[in-house]
Amino acid sequence: MDVSGSGGAVDGVVCEDELSRRKRRDGKWTIKKVELEHTHLNSPGKAKIVKEYRMKNFTSEVRRKLFNYFEEGVPVSQIHGCMVNESGGLENITFTVKDLQHDVCKEQRLRMVGRLDNEGRLKDVLWVDARSRAAYEEFGDVVCFDATYLTYEYDLPFVNFVGVNHHGQSILLGCALFSREDCDTYC
Fold first, then answer.
1. CB-neighbour burial class of residue 87 (10 A; exposed 0-12, middle 13-18, buried 19+)
2. What are the residues facing 8 on neighbouring strands?
3. 30 lies in a domain?
4. How many domains does the chain have?
5. How many C-beta atoms lie closer than 10 Å to residue 163's C-beta?
6. DSSP-assigned letters across all residues of 76-128
7. Is there a single domain that holds both residue 131 and residue 108?
8. Helix 97-111 vs helix 60-71: crossing angle, to nearest 10
9. Which of 50, 94, 108, 140 has the highest Cβ tally under 10 A?
10. Which domain holds residue 107?
């Protein structure tokens, strides 16, 4: 640690910076005086500024209700409004809409952990719709797949799974984006 004092003015008097005069022992600061008494009044009303205090009423039941509503397509702001009404008013709810949105985003990120690369981009995605599943049940005896590189921006191989129907026509059974081409990924 370097010590460089700049000085300043207190009540019109130019003072030397105290840090520039302090001695260090073996590169560490030495403590000369400790003030253990509070130097300000406690303000419990300002506890709402600290997220940990706001989230104290955010129980597992409230969290479950948040995600149930959210997965049904209800916006987070409306979910918060419902919780306020159920609790009897805004004074009984300490968490904010932003707190709920943050929790939803955190949960969505956790669900994506295995599907994102180091830069936060999506990887290893398989797409199969209901029609493709039904076609696979009927015509899935032989499945061909072709890995065509999309080398422009993402360097992810696009893989399509193709079968042949009873008319001899190619049918799409599914497709995928893979981050790497190895046996484990293809399995």
1. middle
2. 15
3. no
4. 2
5. 20
6. HHHHHHHHHHHHTSGGG----HHHHHHHHHHHHHHHTGGGB-TTS-B-SEEE-
7. no
8. 70
9. 94
10. 44-114
Per-residue pLDDT for 2 more than 60?
A: no
- Residue that finishes a domain, picked among 89, 114, 139: 114
H or E element at residue 145: strand 144-150
- pLDDT for residue 14 is more than 60: no
In a domain, 119, yes or no: no
**Residue 22 within a domain:** no
Give the residue with greater pLDDT, 15 vs 154. Answer: 154
pLDDT digits (tens, 9 = 90+) for 26-54: 667 777 888 888 777 776 666 667 777 77
For residue 20, give the nearest of 35, 2, 38 by alpha carbon. Answer: 2
Q: Using an 8 Å Cβ cutoff, are 140 and 173 in contact? A: yes
Report if residue 4 sits inside a domain.
Answer: no
C-alpha 144/C-alpha 159 separation (Å) is 10
